[in-house]
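Here we describe the complex-level prediction in full. Unlike the single-chain runs in Section 2.1, the two entities below were treated as one system.
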Amino acid sequence: MKINLFLLTLFIAAAGIWTYWQHHREPPLFTPTIQNQETTRGVAHEPYVDNISFELLNSKIVELYDYKGRVVILHFWATWCAPCLVEFPEIIKMAQQTKEYVTVIAITTDKNKTDIERFLKGLKTPLPDNFLIVRDTDKTISQNIFQTFRLPETYILKPDLSLHEKKIGAFEGWAEAEFIQKLTNL
Amino acid sequence: MKQIIVTFFVLVFFFLQSGLVQAKEDKALSLSHWSSLPILYEGRLKPIDSFSSILLEKISGRRSIDGLNANRWLLETIFDPARAMERPIFYVAAIKNIQGIDEKTRFINYLELATIVDSKSAQIRQLLDTDEQNWSQDQEQFMTLYQSYILFTQLLRSLTAILPLPIDLDNENTSMTYLDLKKNQQDNDLAVKNIIDKKGMDPATYSPEELKQSAASFQLDVIEQAGINNVLFRIIPTQLNDNWVEWVSPWDMLLNGKGTPKSGAYLSHWTDMARAYQNKDQDLWRQSVQAAHNDIKTYVDQGEIKSVKVETYFNLLPFKEMAAWLYGLCLIIGASLFSPLGQKIKIEPLQHVLTAVFIGGLISHTIFIIFRVIILERPPVGTLYESLLFVSLICAGVMFIMALKQKHEGRVQSIIIGALSSVSLLFISYGLKDTNSMPTLVAVLNTNFWLAVHVLCITIGYGFCVLAGCFAHLYLFQKIKNTNTTTIQKTFNNTIMIAIFALLFTTVGTILGGIWADQSWGRFWGWDPKENGALLIVLWLIWLIHSRISGHLREFGFIVGMAFINIIVTLAWFGVNLLSVGLHSYGFIEGIAASIALFCTFEIVVITTLAVTARKKAA
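The structure predicted for the assembly as a whole is:
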C-alpha cells in the first residue's frame, strides 16, 4: 500500500513538473496547414534522354551524346515567339562566359530558314562556338520527343546528360553571376 | 482445433466468392492490370482501381452503375466519352423540384443534366455567391449534383488530347488526335486565315477541303479550351528537376509545359490504350498496359509506388464487408443458441461454429486495418471514420481475449458482445460519406509522433467504454431474466474490470493529448470541446469506480451509471464535432445531430426501462 502511495505521488509530481516545464516553453509560431502530396521521389536517369541527331543551320549533323562531359542546355525557341527573342541575347551572354563547359543547343521550330538567318544577323553579339542552332521543322524533336508545345522551354542537362532542371517559359537570369556559378557546379 | 478448421473454411469461402467475381470482371479486357496503374488523387498515389471507386461513389453514390463496375465505368468515361455521356449515372430521385425530370426518374445521364444545368445557370451563379449555410436542403442537394456534374465533365475530358477525332486532313483515312493537329497548328491557322481572306466568314461558300481545314482549326481550339484547368486525372509522372517527379494530368502536361521525353513516351502508351479500347484490340491493350507499367518502374522510385501495389491487393477483397457479415452471422448464431429451440438441441457444435465465424470476422477486420496502416503509412486513427473501424476492432479483439478465458455460456456471451459492438460501429461507419477514400491528413495530424500514442490510447479507451456499457446493459437484462447469481456476478466483475481499463486508457490518452496539443498548438489544455469531452469520460469513470470502491454506490447504481457511458462516449466522440468550435476542426461533421439525439433518447429510454423493471423484479 505504501509503495502504491509512493508511486502515485511520484507520478503526480512528475506530471506536475512536466506540465509546468511545458507551459514555460515558447509556443510554436504557427500551426501547420494542410499539405497534400503533389510529388514523389524520382529515379536518377543517366542520361535523361536517348541519343538524338540534330541538323545544324549549316546542314551539319551532330549528336547529343557528342557533348557528354559538358553541361548541355537544350533551348526551344522560334523567331515568331516574342519572349524567346527577349531571352535569346541573355543566353548568348551566358554561353560566352561558359565556353569551356557549357554547350547551348538552340532548337527552333521555324520553317523558313531565312527568318532564322535574318534574326541571327540582327543580333548585336555574334554566336559563340558553343552555341548551336538546330532546325526542327517537322517538330519531331520539340513535340514528339520533348513534348514542347509552348515556347520558350529549356532543359539544363548535367555533364552525364541527366536532367538538372526544366525551365518553362522565358528566364531572364541567364547571364547572372549566381546562375553561371550554379552551372559551373553541375 | 475444430474452430480453426471451421474458420479456415469460412474464410476460403469468402475469398473464393470474391475471387470469382473479380475473375468474371476481368475476362474482357484484362482490367486488373490496367487498374493497378498509379494515379495521384487527394494528395496520395493510389491505383486507378481506388480512384474509379471513389469517383463513381462521389458522382452517383453507387459502387457500380448501369451494369458496370467502377473500373469499366471509368474506362468508358475516359476512352469513349460520347457513350459515357448517354449513360444514366446521376442520382436524382432524392432531389425534388427539378423541372423537366419525371418524379419517378431515379438516374439521369450527362446530356440531360447538362440541359438542366444550362437552364439553371443564373440560379447556380447566385447560389455560388451566397454562403452555403444559407442554402435550403433542396438547394444543397442540387449543388451537390452540380458538383458531380463538374467532376464528371473533367473526367470526360481527361484524355481528349489523345483520343481519335473525326477529322481526316490528309485523306488517308487515318484518324487524327489533338496532338497531331497541334503539330500543324501554325500551317492550319495560316491556311484558315487565307480562306477567310479569300471567301469571307460564311462556310457555305467554302469547298469541302476548305471546310475540313476550318473545322480542324476550330476543333483544335474547342478541345484545347475545354482542356484548360483539367487537372483531375493525374496519371503522368513528369520529372522537371533532378529530385522530384510531379504527377500531372495529360492536359496539365501539354498546356503548361510539364512534358518531358519520358512523360511523352508514357502518354503514348495511353494513346495506344485508347486505340486498343476503341478497336477492341486485346494484344495492343495488353502491350500498352504492360509498357506503361514498365515505364513507371524506370522513373518513379519503387518505394513510392509500393503502397500502390499494396492497395491493389487490398482492393481485391472487401475485408471490411466480410468482417461485418461474419460478425452479423455471429449474432444470428448467438441468437439461435439462446432461442428455445437452441436450448433444447445439443448446442456444443454450434458454439464451435460461432467461435470460428467470430475468429474469421476478427481476421478479416485485422487484415483490413493492417492494410490501411501499410498504405497510409500512419496509425489507423486519423479520421472519425478510421476511429470507428479501429474501435470496433478493439471491441472484437478484447472480447476475443475474454472468450478465450471462458467456457460455454461465458464464451458465447463474450463473442456476442464483441460481435454486436463491432458490427454496430462498422454499420455506423457506412453512414460517414466521403471518408472511405483514405484521404491525406491535415499536417498537424500527419506529422506528429503524439498522434500515434494519444489517439490510439483515447480510441482504445473508447472501445473499452463501449464494452463496459454493453456489459452493463447485459447485467440489467440478466437481472430481469432472473439469471442465476453467479452469472450476474461474473457480468458485474467483467463490467468493473473493463471499466478500469477504460479509465486507464482514456486518462493516459487525455494526458498525452495535452502533450500533443502543446507541441502542435502551443498549449497543454484549452477547454476545447473535444478536450472537455475526453475529460467528461474520465471524470464519469473516476466517479463511478471510486464511488463503488468506497461503497457510496451499490452494485446496481454502478451498473446503471456505467450503462450511460455509451451516451457520454457518443457525445465526446461525435457530438462535440457538431459544434464546429475549437481546434479539432479536422473532425468537424454535419448532419448527424438527429442520429445522435435519436441514439441518446433511445439509450435513455432503454436503460431507464431496464433499470426500473430490474428494480421491480428485485423488490
